[in-house]
Amino acid sequence: MSAHTESSRPKLGSRRAENAFFAAAVLVFIAGIALSFAPSLAASAFVLRWIGLVLFLPVAWRRRSLLVWTFYAMIAGVVLGLDAPHFSGQLRVIGDVFLRLIRMIVAPLIFGGIVTGIAGHSELKGVGRVALKAVLFFEVVTTLGLVLGLIAINLSHAGVGVTLPATSQAVAPAAHSETWQQLILNIFPENIAQAVAQNQILQVAIFSLLFGTALATLPESKRAPLVTVLQSLTDTMFRMTKIIMVIAPLAAGAAMAYTVSSAGLHLLASLALLAVTYYGAIAAFILLVLIPILVAGRISVRRFAAAIAEPAAIGFATTSSEAALPLAMERLEEFGVPRWIVSFVVPTGYSFNMTGSSVYLTMAAIFAAQAAGIHLSLGEQLIMLATLMLTSKGVAGVPRATLVVLMASAADLHIPSSAILVLLGVDTLMDMGRSAMNVIGNCMAAVVVARWEGELQDQSA
C-alpha cells in the first residue's frame, strides 16, 4: 500500500505542475494578445506572448498528442504572424502541401470504404435506408442551424451602425444560382477521373455506391478477389492518413501564422459584434441541438467529443473541413461506426450537412441588410431562410462559396453588394468556426445514423 502511495505521489505532483504551467501559459499569452491592441505597450505584449509560448512547451512535450500539438502550433502561429509577418507570409505553402496530401488520399479512401462495405459485408439492402436517414438528418440539422443564425442576429443587431464603403448605393448584381435540375445533375459524375481530379467527393461517393452495388451482384468467385484488393487499398489509405497527420500541427501553425500576418488582429475592429454573435450562436447550437441529439440517441457526449476533437481542431486551424476528413473517418471507425456507413455518410454530408455554414448564412444575410439600413419583415426573413435552405446545398466544394450564396440572396432583396463584401474583413475568422462545425456535424451524422441503424458498436471509454 505504501509503495503504491509513494509511486503515485510524483504522478500527482507532476500533473499539478503541468496544469499550473498550462494555466500560467494561457494567462500570460492572453495578456500578450490583449496588450497588442495598445501600441504604447507593444514591447510588453511581445515579451508576454513569447513567455506564454515557452511556458506551454513543457505541457505539449509531455502529452505529445495530435490535439495538444495542433493547439500549441496554432498559438505559435499567432505569435509568428504578429511578430514576424514577412516570414509568416511565406508559410502558406506548408498548409497548401498538407491540403494536397489530404486531397490525394480522399478519393481512394471513400471509394475503398464504400465498395468494400457494400460488396464485402452484404450491406446492399441497408444502403437505401442509410441514405434516406442521412439526408433526413442533414436537412433537419441544417434547417435548425439556419433558424438559430436568424434568431442570433436579430437579437444582437450586429449590422446596425456599420459604415459601408462609398459604393454602397450599388445594388448587388444577380449572382449565378443553380436550378434544382442542375443541383441534381451535379451529384452524378460524368467522368470519374474528372470527379477525382476536381475533388468532387459526392460524385466519387455516388460512383463508389454504384460500383459496390454492381460488384455485390456478382458471384462470390468473381467478387472476392477484387474485394480483397480494395480492402487492402482502404487499409493502406488509413495508414497513409496516420503518416500525413504527423505534419498536421505544422500545417495548422503555418496556416494560422499566414492568416494573422495577412489580416492582423485588428480585423475585428468594426465587426467584433458579428464575430461574437456567430461564435455565441455556435455555442448555443452545440448546447441546444447537437448535445440533445446525442443524449436522445444514447451516445456518450464525452466519448464523442474526445473522438472528434482532433479533426475539429485541424478543420479550425486550416479553415478547411476537407483537411480533417481522413482523420475524422478514422476516428469514427474507432468510435464504433462501421466503415461502410462512415464512407458513405461523411462525404455526403460535405454537400448536404454544412452545419457551420448554415448557422452563418442567415446571420450574414441579415447582417448585410442591417448594415445597408434595410428592414426585412418576418415574412421576408422566412423567405430568405427557405431560399438559403436550397441554395446552400452543394456549397462545400467551393472556397468562400458562402459569399456566392449570399450574393444571390442579396440580389433578390436589393441589398447592396458592399454590405456583403464588408464581411470579407472577418470571413477568415468565421471560416475557422464554420469548418470546425462542419466537421463536427458530419461526424455526428455518421454516429447518429449508425445508432439509428443499430450498427453502432459501443466501446468502453
From TrEMBL:
Localization of this protein? Cell membrane
InterPro entries of this UniProt entry? Na-dicarboxylate_symporter (IPR001991), Na:dicarbo_symporter_sf (IPR036458)
Example GO BP = dicarboxylic acid transport
From which residue to which does any coiled coil extend? none
Gene Ontology CC, one term:
plasma membrane
Entry membrane topology = Multi-pass membrane protein
Q: Which UniProt keywords apply?
A: Cell membrane, Membrane, Transmembrane, Transmembrane helix, Transport
- Residue spans crossing the bilayer: 20-37, 43-61, 66-85, 97-118, 130-153, 201-219, 240-261, 267-295, 359-378, 398-424
- Record has Transmembrane helix as a keyword: yes
Name of the protein described by the UniProt record:
Cation:dicarboxylase symporter family transporter
Broad class of where this protein is predominantly found: membrane
GO MF entry, a single one = symporter activity
